[in-house]
Amino acid sequence: MIEILVALVILSISTVAILGALTTTLSSTGEHRSLAADDTLLTAMAEQVKNVVELQPSPPAWPTGCGGTGGPLTQWYEDTTTNNTPNIPLPAPLTGTPLTGSSYYPVSLTDPPYVGYVVNLTNVQYPNGSTWTSCPVSATAAGVQKITVDVTSNANITDTFDVVVRYQGDGNA
Amino acid sequence: MPDRRQSGAILVLALIFLLIGSFVVIPLAGLATTNLQATAPFITERQLEYAADGAMDLAIETVRYSATQGYPGGTCGSITTTLNGQTVTVDCTSEAPGTSGAAGEDDESRYVSFVACPGGDTSGCPGQSFLSATADYADFTPSGDVQVGYAVRILSWDVQSANF
Fold it and tell me: What mean pLDDT, rounded, does chain A reach?
């Protein structure tokens, strides 16, 4: 009888350990995949911003004005006025649906594996020495802008990333 | 007849099961740990690369409109900024225009080299740099008028590994 009880205890512990290890592996794999997807999307968006603002043969006019939350510069990146033809389109082949009626960003993605992910461009800032501020401190300081890219996964986890663009044209920005 | 009692057999079977289970659990735990441990360095490396990229852009643009930085024989200085939680210092060095042999270098411009390193690094930046670049500044308009920082060309942009 004691022998059976001891065997049952051993079998129970072994079974729980195996199931626990399987569960942990599955959840950590899922977490890793989610983080990899977030990372890929953040990098793609950052490169898209740099590509559109800096690297096109005929880049858009250098965006100006104060940034920060709700500033006209941030609104240019969010595309508040022409949300059907965004200034910063999503990187191909991604497509999405704007979440508000007044701007393109934040936009909810509609393509696998990012269905339900929300991407936003926020809080554009200018350099002020080694720090960052909403309005350019001088005419020559307007040639560098920092854009914050937010990605919120469908598990409602938000990852934030800053990307810097530099004025490539002649003369002052 | 020999004694063929099966007393203790189930215990032996349970121990065998435990042994087999441990062969499964240990590799699975290792796999889960590796996944979790690998994630943080990947994220940090991406943050470092973009922080260096942004700090380099900031340094290039700062020197561009400076009437004192980047001239041959003069000072060039450094700039430190924090992006994506990573502090990066960019050191710049003034070179003599027209002497480096770099492709496209212009005799009438400032020629400046930059290296980006971990912020606060005191171990010798070039040895620890994760990004280096050279820029050629034209301080004249096409009509010949003097205008500091009228144009800038990036002559080289070399990314080293941020994984250290």
Answer: 87
d(CA B155, CA B159): 14
Question: Phi then psi for B162, rounded to 5 degrees?
Answer: -95, 5
Q: Is A122 helix (H, G, I), strand (E, B) or coil?
A: strand
For residues A20 and A14, give the distance between their C-alpha atoms in angstroms, rounded to a whole number: 10
**B22 contacts in A (CB within 8 Å)?**
14, 17
Task: Establish if B87 touches chain A: CB-CB under 8 angstroms.
Answer: no
C-beta separation of A153 from A38 below 8 A: yes
pLDDT at B118 > cutoff 90: no
Rounded-to-integer distance, Cα B142 and Cα B17, Å: 83
Question: Would the pTM of this model clear 0.90, i.e. be above it?
Answer: no
| CA–CA distance, A166 with B12 (Å, rounded to integer) | 71
Query: Residue B32 is which amino acid?
Result: A
ipTM of the assembly?
A: 0.83
Tell me how crowded residue B143 is: count the other CB atoms within 10 A of its CB: 6
Is B29 touching A (CB cutoff 8 A)?
yes
